[in-house]
Amino acid sequence: MKTIIFPASADSSKLASKYGYDEWLVSRFMQYVPDVERFLAKMDARPTHYIRVNTLKIEPENLAERLASKGFELRRTFLSEVFAILRAPFSVGATTEYLLGYYYVQDLGSCVPVDAMELDSGSDLVVMDMAAAPGGKTTFISQKMKNAGVVVALEPQEKRLRSLVFNLARCGVTNTCVYLMDGGRANDLKLKFDRVLLDAPCSCEGVIPKDMLRKTSHKPDDIDYCANRQKMLIEAAAELVKPGGLLIYSTCSFAPEENEMIVDWLLGRINNRAGGENKARNARIEPLPHGNSGLTSFGGYTFDDNLKNARRFYPHIDNTLGFFVAKIRIR
Ligand code: SAM
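^ inputs. structure came back:
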């Protein structure tokens, strides 16, 4: 499927020129982003920075006290491990506490996929993180598991794998095996997992507030390219899930072709496949408490109604970077 392009209008042209975007991108946002002008204005504002406390090493209250004594002002968020930074006297990546692995600098939206994984139960959970570097989510997974059970983390780029290994060491993670491996080959490991996270490589539309060049460097072909790879990866990811387990699919893109359309394609493949000998599997998206409902239609396509349980995070509504999360139970 090709990236869907809409005809330009006076409004899309005006907004694109006012906020410095290529028009095609704004006319797409106008199809599904609520209150699009406020959205575009917020994308131009400096994003709120967040830190996720590494509870393997320190309790949130203790870290908050230590950082407050250095002049940082923090505010709690809907996740108990995550603080918003309201005031920073200097870079939050330049403290002793950071070097000690007491926290990870990570957007609130980026923590939601791990929070959705139901890891608290699990000293004997077996977890796959299929696209892991630089490890923001892997380290959160391990902390949720209290360093018990086992995490398998894959990353095909050697340079990025090094940053993953560094972050695991800095955060004191000891329950994770790291493989230099393409996620599409994960089934070669011949293992099945209670939880699989596919934080998919994507076109990164959601990080425009951190990288304004993307307003014009981003092209429809990027979405096509990413969507093809995401289909290949999500199909492999679903195969890895034990019956009754969870597949969490996330991206930092707004594009429906990388989000709802990928998950809709997977649901179709799993739910409509002829079973034979009761082997049919079933996939359902479970609701999440935060964020905005997933789309159930886009560009003339209608998706499984269950997609409304997926979640979109928008800067102007959620004060996060852009994010998409679907929590898929596979039986
Ligand atoms: N989960 C990471 C975190 O929270 O820090 C961020 C992951 S980033 C969105 C996507 C990662 O997927 C990149 O490190 C990229 O190198 C990797 N990647 C690209 N192609 C891949 C593939 N075929 N299989 C697995 N990972 C892939």
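Residues 16 and 23 are 5 Å apart (CA to CA). The mean pLDDT is 96.
thumbs up if we can close this ticket
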